[in-house]
């Protein structure tokens, strides 16, 4: 690294220009940590297979959104130098270099480690030539029955231009020769996406779908000679751009963009390394790509489909199942009476989502004393009991208001469906603000108590109202009947659904109005406390740390000597441990069975710790272009519980990855994995597999 000790000025605010790590490379390094898990022989085998699948799916999204966005900005001339000091073309070149390296490592892990390990357990993923004759015969019959009818070969000739290749579709490039004219033609066959990625040739023996299609190509091109065939896959820009200022219904505009999205420009071409130069040149020419956008890997392509292998019914090759605790809100308690007595802090998936958050909405829908339910929905599952409860409440005559964020990336179509279903049931559905995504996780229940007074019950969470992801995403939620929180959440819903300029709250920090400034002022308070000799410390847990204003405030605090612990899952643009700049900052990442998703922001506050939880990561989009909420946790036991998580995560004996000043992550061994520890020591019970 070019930064040398003693380079920094003692004058506050003067920092080196290269104090930020590149965010795109940092994200790729996060996916590298996912790949590390796939290569970990101490993990259950099918969980390693799942991490291979997650790596592939993550990389698809990275190209569809981040690389595509950068390419689009460069093409339109609006790309500027990044905060890391790199020019856009440098970022793109470095991204391509690292992505090529990681894709090759991914393929090597699959071929050299996972395939042999699966074979030892009686699970085989084979290519066509490795199958037995009886298996080939059965697959030929399967092809005629189930695959052949849905295939559409498209030839390229003067009457048929090169076909459109949809994003993330798997294809076969086929070269055929007409024996009568000796003419050579190119054709494309799309591998049907709704069929299984890997076909079971015989029990526990699988073959890629494209291999079966390739062996039956003569049936698609009768009377011709098949000269060669190669699998390929393209990735297109699939980020949505919706002009919310136009006089058009937002749902209609978004539906139009969803149709247009599949025609976005190509940003990546994946090919098997056996492809011939002639076919590759044809593909790159027709798709308008240069060599840097071509990714050659050993087949098969599209290993995101390995999730089907990971789902095999082999419990001995998976994590032991467990049942989340229901102790936070036992069945035999009245949820409203409990919350009137004390706040409840739930930690998913260790605490049951079903018997806490979901139960709050369901009980509110069924309770005749409940007058109104208001809730934000960013992502939810297709069969969500929460949706059903909101519909039941509306049909029972309660006032139900739902703020639906239909622009949640890749969930747009599902959210449109639920928005319309809710509207049809009589719910008031609104879509937040023009230009802002409503990303906060809020629920408000207004109930008339037995004495005739109205009381508000709230849930503020760090994760979505999605019962399925709540089983695998680590998140916190605060359930409370505190009057101040109730007033704040009421005011915020009025802000979301009506027209009010009130952006001041009692126990909330809300983006884009007060969240960044609120965090910076608290960082500065810790800096001042440190200089005055008072207890000072900063501890952040988030998915991403990118915002330059926040990072610079942390640098100033570190220069003053404030101990700072950063626990980040994904991107981190802060350089820790740099002499004279960030010597007191340590950055760690924990990955494992559950996806670390919660956001916690804790300040020592002179010996009276102040702890906040909520939906906001420390990124520009969260702080400037989204409605985000942090709530202050006031119960001393809850604060101690949250701070104890940091003590455990930052312990020297805890398994994690450590970030150095150059942006490299090093895996740190230890006898304790925080997720395993929590599963063993908290309120839930483990179930034998």
Briefly, what is this?
The chain has 689 residues and is α/β, with parallel strands linked by helices.
Task: Explain this structure.
Mean pLDDT is 90; it is low at 1-12, 240-248 and 684-689. The strands form 5 sheets. Strands 15, 19, 20, 21, 22, 24, 25, 26, 27 and 28 form a 10-stranded mixed sheet that branches. Strands 11, 12, 13, 14, 16, 17, 18 and 23 form an 8-stranded mixed sheet that branches. The chain has a 6-stranded mixed sheet with strand order 2-4-3-7-8-9, with helices on both faces. The chain is of the alpha/beta class and 689 residues long. Helix 15 (515-531) packs parallel to helix 16. 36% of the residues lie in helices and 22% in strands. It is globular, with a radius of gyration of 27 Å. A hairpin with a 6-residue loop joins strand 3 (170-177) and strand 4 (184-190).
């Amino acid at each position: 690294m070019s930064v040398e000790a003693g380079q920094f000025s003692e004058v506050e605010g003067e920092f080196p220009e290269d104090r930020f790590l590149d965010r795109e490379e940092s994200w790729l390094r996060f996916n590298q940590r996912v790949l590390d898990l796939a290569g970990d022989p101490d993990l259950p085998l099918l969980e390693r297979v799942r991490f291979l699948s997650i790596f592939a799916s993550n990389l698809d999204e990275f190209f569809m959104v981040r690389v595509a966005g950068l390419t689009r900005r460069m093409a339109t001339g609006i790309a500027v130098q990044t905060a890391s000091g790199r020019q856009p073309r440098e970022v793109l070149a470095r991204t391509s270099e690292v992505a090529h390296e990681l894709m090759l490592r991914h393929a090597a892990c699959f071929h050299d480690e996972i395939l042999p390990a699966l074979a030892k357990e009686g699970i085989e993923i084979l290519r066509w030539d490795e199958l037995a004759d009886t298996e080939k015969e059965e697959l030929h019959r399967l092809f005629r029955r189930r695959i052949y009818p849905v295939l559409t070969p498209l030839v390229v000739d003067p009457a048929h231009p090169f076909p459109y290749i949809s994003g993330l579709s798997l294809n076969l490039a086929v070269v055929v020769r007409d024996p009568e004219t000796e003419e050579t033609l190119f054709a494309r066959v799309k591998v049907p996406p709704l069929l299984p990625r890997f076909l079971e040739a015989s029990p526990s023996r699988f073959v890629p779908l494209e291999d079966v299609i390739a062996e039956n190509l003569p049936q698609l091109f009768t009377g011709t000679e098949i000269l060669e065939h190669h699998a390929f896959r393209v990735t297109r820009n699939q980020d949505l751009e919706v002009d919310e200022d136009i006089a058009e219904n937002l749902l209609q505009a978004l539906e139009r963009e969803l149709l247009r999205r599949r025609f976005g420009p190509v940003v990546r071409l994946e090919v098997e390394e056996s492809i011939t130069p002639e076919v590759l040149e044809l593909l790159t020419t027709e798709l308008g790509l240069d060599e840097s956008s071509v990714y050659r890997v050993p087949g098969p392509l599209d290993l995101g489909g390995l999730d089907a292998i990971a789902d095999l019914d082999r419990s001995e090759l998976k994590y032991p199942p467990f049942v989340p605790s229901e102790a936070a809100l036992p069945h035999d308690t009245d949820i409203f009476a409990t919350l009137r007595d004390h706040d409840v802090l739930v930690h998913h998936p260790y605490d049951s989502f079903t018997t806490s958050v979901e139960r709050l909405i369901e009980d509110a829908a069924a309770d005749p004393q409940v007058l109104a339910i208001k809730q934000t929905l960013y992502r939810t599952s297709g069969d969500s009991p929460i949706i059903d409860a909101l519909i039941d409440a509306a049909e029972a005559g309660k006032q139900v208001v739902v703020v639906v964020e239909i622009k949640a990336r890749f969930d747009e179509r599902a959210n449109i469906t639920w928005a319309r279903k809710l509207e049809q049931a009589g719910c008031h559905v609104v879509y937040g603000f023009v230009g802002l995504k409503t990303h906060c996780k809020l629920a408000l229940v207004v109930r008339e108590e037995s004495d005739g007074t109205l009381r508000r019950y709230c849930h503020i969470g760090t994760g979505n109202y999605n019962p399925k992801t709540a089983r695998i995403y680590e998140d916190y939620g605060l359930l409370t009947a505190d009057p101040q929180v109730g007033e704040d959440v009421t005011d915020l819903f009025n802000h979301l659904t009506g027209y009010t300029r009130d952006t001041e709250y009692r126990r909330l920090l809300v983006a884009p109005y007060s969240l960044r400034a609120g965090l910076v002022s608290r960082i500065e308070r810790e800096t001042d406390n440190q200089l005055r000799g008072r207890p000072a410390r900063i501890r952040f847990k988030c998915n991403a740390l990118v915002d330059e204003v926040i990072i610079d405030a942390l640098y100033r605090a570190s220069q003053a000597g404030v101990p700072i612990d950063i626990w980040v899952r994904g991107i981190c643009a802060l350089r820790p441990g740099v002499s004279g700049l960030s010597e007191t900052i340590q950055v760690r990442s924990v990955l494992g069975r559950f996806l670390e998703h919660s956001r916690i922001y804790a300040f020592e506050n002179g010996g009276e710790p102040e702890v906040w939880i909520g939906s906001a990561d420390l990124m520009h989009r969260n702080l400037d272009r989204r409605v985000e909420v942090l709530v202050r946790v006031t119960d001393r036991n809850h604060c101690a519980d949250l701070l104890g998580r940091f003590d455990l995560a930052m312990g020297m004996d805890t398994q994690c990855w450590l970030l150095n000043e150059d942006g490299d992550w090093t895996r740190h061994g230890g006898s304790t994995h925080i997720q395993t520890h929590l599963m063993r020591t908290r309120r839930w019970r483990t179930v034998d597999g």
